[in-house]
Amino acid sequence: MLARTADGLFWLARYMERADYVARLLQVAEHMNAVRVDTNRSSEWESAIVASGCAESFEATVEPADEASVIRFLAFERANPSSIVNCIETARRNARAVRTSLTTEMWDAVNQTSLELADFTQGPLDADRLAEFLDWVKARVGLFHGVCSNGMLRRDSYHFIRTGQFLERADNTARLLDVKYHVQLPEVADVGGVVDYYQWLAILRVVGARRAYRVLFKGRVQPAHVAELLISRTVFPRSLAFCFEQITQHLDAIQAQDPQLAAVARRQAHVMYAQLRFASIDQVIEDGLHEYLTDMIDRTRDLGAEIAKGHLF
């Protein structure tokens, strides 16, 4: 496979997954803001900006981190490369560049999403219309991944798409879970103390994990169990462990089809997967969950760079 084709497939999946993540991030900010009980903590909207990785670019706008400005910046701002609008449009450009490697259904899913996007960008959205938009984004991304799973040959094109998807998802899950600590637990010493039940419940609701949590843990929502679900439980498809399990499998498949590809990224991914799979959540919380998640975000970024170095260029 040509490097530019692999690169286009990899980033197509990443941008589609990122659009889904930003939509979920805005939803969790809405939920957290609705149940906020301590006005001395940092703003949920400020936390959403930090968790999106767009803090520096948002600060350059010299706007307050309030509901209107953050929604506009993360959802519709053309100057923000990670806004939902830009993610969808960039995904379409990548899809067009690798059109011959996609199934008809995959191209239609991306192209139709780009066309329908105009319906939501003609003017300001009220609360109901915004909720509809965020749900629409999640549904369209789900459609794309569904037709990809059901229609593509299990060859290198498929494996590059899935590697990009799960690498982006791993980064997103770590950031989403860390939002809780930007909002409610800014100090390491606070971890394990009294937490707001409704904010933890909001996180589960946004990642679609309320039923999964009830099945695995039952009873009242506890932060240690939420962390365990989103970090080390491979049965949940948005956990870090599940994502890295998938990444290792797809990198293994890519190298099996082309043994000349560098193995550094594979080894790095396998090490991270093993550490996540057998992580002790109690120890993670004792050492500092925020620090642990920050480290995972950094290592996931480094893995992405190594994949690009060894596989795409």
List keywords for this structure.
single chain; 72% helix; mainly alpha; globular; 15 helices; 313 residues; 0% strand
How would you characterize this protein structure?
This protein is mainly α. The chain is built from 15 helices and no strands. The termini are close together. The relative contact order is 0.12.
List the helices and strands and how they pair.
Layout: H1 3-34, H2 44-52, H3 55-59, H4 67-76, H5 84-97, H6 104-117, H7 127-151, H8 156-183, H9 197-206, H10 210-216, H11 223-231, H12 240-257, H13 264-277, H14 281-287, H15 289-312
Helix pairs in contact: 1-2, 1-5, 1-7, 1-8, 1-9, 2-4, 2-8, 5-6, 6-7, 8-12, 8-15, 12-13, 13-15, 14-15
